[in-house]
Design goal:
Blueprint (H helix, E strand, L loop, with lengths): L7 H10 L12 E2 L2 H10 L7 E5 L5 H9 L2 E6 L2 H11 L5 E5 L11 H12 L6 E6 L5 H11 L5 E7 H8 L9 H7 L2 E9 L4 E2 L6 E8 L7 H12 L6 H7 L6 H11 L12 H15 L1
Parallel strand pairs: 2-3, 2-5, 3-4, 5-6
Antiparallel strand pairs: 1-8, 6-9, 7-9
Length: about 300
């Protein structure tokens, strides 16, 4: 199927005919370059057995490309007018399910309806893998990835366009100014790649910042409980300007300076370094040791 509303002229005409205007509050910046839409779909490395989740499907241009490759596509759209447009464009595609409403639910999870739709698609295709492939709305990109990695459903791969600043944080190595909790959460669980930078001119309306296409190949299972990882790493990053050993004490990960020094020695952390200099694998060792001590 040829993707509809994949170019600026097609999308603007379709929206104008329905009296629809892009909503800045929802982070709506539509990717209107068909070649780049194909790049996003290809970055997902989608196989016929895969189930794809797309958050923010807009008029369904990327959705149509995904449906050609995947076993099933679950597409979410919060804007009722855009959901109507997508429903019309995708009506003839039996392997696409459109979920209307906010992709995010309570307590940092994906919405219940979205989780149920994904679970149903996976159940209907035994052995299927889940992949998140999307032009993620700017305001919720990080929240969607965190929701899936912390609470599920866990994807095998993420391929998405995000703000360049978010891409920087996803891929930043230890010691980089952009390195932080998101970096650790992703890099402890997989490999992050920045595939290309996208100029504002390939979106409509044009954002004020550049974007990037990123891909994360995730491990089959996380090396440690992601929630424990976020809790422990978060306590250190809250004290970014403190030395690691001191940050451990302030965050109450240890009782005293001696315990902090011992823990640093066991994990290979520099007690006099800063939390932003601690590599992702050291955080994994730290979480394991703390869990062992509690056990």
């Amino acid at each position: 199927m040829t993707a509809r509303y994949a170019t600026l002229s097609e999308l603007r005409s379709a929206l104008a005919a329905r009296g629809i205007h892009p909503r800045h509050a929802l982070g709506q910046h539509f990717l209107v370059d068909l070649n780049l839409l194909r790049c996003v779909a290809e970055a997902g490395e989608i196989e016929p057995r895969d189930v794809v989740l797309e958050v923010g499907c807009a008029g369904g241009a990327l959705t149509a490309l995904l449906s050609e490759r995947a076993c099933a596509v679950v597409a979410a759209e919060i804007d009722p007018a855009l959901a109507d447009l997508a429903d019309e464009a995708l009506d003839c595609l039996p392997n696409v399910r459109l979920v209307r409403g906010d992709a995010l639910g309570a307590r940092g999870h994906l919405s219940r309806e979205l989780r149920q739709a994904v679970a149903s698609a996976l159940a209907a295709a035994p052995g299927a893998r889940l992949k998140l492939v999307a032009n993620l709305p700017y305001g919720i990109a990080t929240a969607v990835m965190k929701a899936m990695l912390l609470h599920g459903p866990r994807p095998a791969l993420i391929a998405a366009t995000v703000q360049r600043e978010v891409a920087d944080r996803m891929a930043a190595p230890a010691g980089h100014h952009a390195y932080g909790l998101l970096s650790v959460l992703l890099q402890c669980q997989g490999t992050v790649e920045r595939l290309r930078t996208l100029r504002p001119t390939v979106f409509w309306p044009r954002p004020k910042v550049s974007s990037a296409l990123v891909r994360v190949r995730l491990l089959d299972a996380p090396p440690v409980d992601p929630a424990a990882l976020v809790r422990v790493a978060g306590k250190l990053f809250e004290q970014r300007r403190k030395q690691v050993a001191k940050a451990m004490q302030i965050g109450r990960l240890v009782e005293d300076a001696g315990a902090a020094a011992a823990l640093c020695a066991e994990t290979g952390m520099d007690p006099h370094g800063r939390p932003g200099d601690v590599p992702a694998e050291a955080f994994v060792r730290l979480v394991r040791l703390l869990a062992k001590e509690k056990g």
